[in-house]
What does this fold into?
Amino acid sequence: MSEPVPPPCFQNCVPPGDERERLVCGDCGWIHYVNPKVIVGAVVTSGGKFLLCRRAIEPRAGFWTMPAGFMEEGESAEHGAAREVWEEATARVRLDALLAVYSIPVISQVQLIYRGELTLPGFAPGLESLETRLFGWDEIPWNELAFPSVTWALQHFHAVRDQTAFAPFTAPVLFESRPGR
Amino acid sequence: MSEPVPPPCFQNCVPPGDERERLVCGDCGWIHYVNPKVIVGAVVTSGGKFLLCRRAIEPRAGFWTMPAGFMEEGESAEHGAAREVWEEATARVRLDALLAVYSIPVISQVQLIYRGELTLPGFAPGLESLETRLFGWDEIPWNELAFPSVTWALQHFHAVRDQTAFAPFTAPVLFESRPGR
It folds into this structure.
């Protein structure tokens, strides 16, 4: 998921009207912008239990996660989150709130995590999952979660489980931000 | 801001474990992912008036906008929004809420628009602005706003001007989403 190695005609310089270095082609002046990626996902429940997926792929293969992945061109964030639930857990979901917006500058990600409920009882591992399962709150495998944001999202879900309108959560301060370059 | 023309070794194909076409290098197998970009910005007020910037650059040069622009690597969304306020209006802002998350699939953007207030009275046009000005609600140049999302954000701000905790707004349905490919 890293950017390509640019051809040798590219050099780092500050384009006119800009305030930071970009990779610019010395031949044609084309500017290669690199920007953060958006992760879309959902904490999904059914009958009060949490739908988690055991990852079949790296990073963190074998660990549990909520359905989430890279937002794609031509979709809304909500469509992307529902698509990820389908791709990773073969499940249909209705989203009802934006649970969290986690900025993680160190990996240049913005995670948009929704709250949702299964609309049909069925689910099964998709291509990127080894296993899909519903966990009660007390059964969640906290020590086997794939990423810190999975822990945050489950805890944030729990904190607003009885609320309908709320401001989305952000990442813990440690992860939230660092001064601009 | 468009992606580079890939070299001829790249071809469209569905990589193993994926479900959609990507540009893949036939020589080394490297996959060139293209994902939506994040716009960060803020509806900023001072003494109940709205800070708008008249754009010095295309698209929509000469029209009015809230400070907003592409999120950069290594910053949080909140830092990015405050940075845009500084770059476009040379103003310092304190953000207090996430006003809106506008998905605009047709241009593959997610706009994270915050609500903020000036912390110092001064402001002045940055490199990308011709003019910066405070407008009362009844003075806003509605017919000279640069983008639909500027109109949405100002109206959404107005709708929650007395609220502290609320769910962020989304784009009008017309713009919000289309079925996945």
